[in-house]
Specification:
This protein has about 160 residues and is α+β, with helices and mostly antiparallel strands. The chain is built from four helices and five strands, in the order H-E-E-H-H-H-E-E-E. The chain has a three-stranded mixed β-sheet with strand order 2-1-3. A hairpin with a 6-residue loop joins strand 4 and strand 5. The chain is globular. The model has no long low-confidence stretch (mean pLDDT about 95).
Amino acid sequence: MPGVWVFPGGAVDADDGDGEEAHRAAAVRELAEEAGVELPAEDLVAYSRWITPKVAPIRFDTRFYLALAPAHSPPRPDGAETVDAAWFEPQAALDAHHAGELPLVFPTIKHLESLVAFANAAEALEAARRREVTAVEPEVVGEGDERRIVLPEELP
């Protein structure tokens, strides 16, 4: 997504395997390619699964994972798919976004909002290990300039 800050990501390749194994392999590969952070797949903790709205011309089934980055591992953009990279605390990223300093997209905003409640990364990881990951399917509501994306629990 050009011009906005998003989490590293990409498509599952044919040689990634099947099911959850394939998604973890893709996540590890894309994290290394786009941010220069190397992690084993077993360090990833499933956090959420999002499927783009039904009205989208191309739909994606996306998995999000949490993990602790290795110590002293600043993210490094690859210069092609990513041109900048940084670590942010969730609230700091949201504050920068609301100040017009950090362009974010809906899924990134919603994930950051969900992480604000945790005191630290260890607490977020522990909660993620206990939660059941079910598919989230946002919907587009409204018409014209009033169109917006909402989560199912935000629907009237």
